[in-house]
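Input set for joint prediction.
Command: fold jointly, output tokens.
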Amino acid sequence: MHEEHEEITDVVADDVAEREFERFVDAMDLDVEPAGMDEEDRRDFASQRRVFLRAVKAGRLTVDEKGQPVYQPKTGEPLTFREPDGAGLMEMDRAKEGKDVKKAYHLLGAMTQTGPKRFANMKNRDLKVCQAILAFFLGG
Amino acid sequence: MRTTLVRRGADERLPPDQQTGRQRHVLPVVYREMMLQICADYHSLPDPLSLTMSQIRFFYDGLRPTLQKHTDPNSKPRTPRVPKPRRR
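tokens >
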């Protein structure tokens, strides 16, 4: 399988990216204290955080004034990730029990006010970042 | 998922399904229960569909002490008060 690779040059400094991450976590009231995590949670969290920071450093992900992540995928409009609400959580029920990927797409669609299709058709490079953002909420 | 639910008088994580081993303490299950609980217990709430996850947690956390008290297996069941017969 051929996948396009492009040179990634950082446009945002490390410490700025870290601050953006902290701002996102604070605004969304996410519990990211390692003390409350088991070994597996800690590993997953570290990997999601890495994906988040890499996207910020590459300039593809920003955090707006409300603390919401705004991601610019390779194609299409930018996606603003709002904190999931009751309606978004109920959207997940549209997918059958056990269909976890579909449930995730429904929730992502509700969070970004787009729809699950947007994520079902997304390239892996972009989907990885969106899933990392979602994972912070799923783990909280 | 680190947010806990109240079970048997304490904050607990749901155990995995005994038959399939599938994790049950996941966001849809936990937040569905929290949302239904706050809808049942608060006299008035903002539109539940518009409540954010942190707001759902806020309202549920307010119910924790009461839920813990009422689900505690060691607590004595309250005997209903029998009304005194009225004098005629």
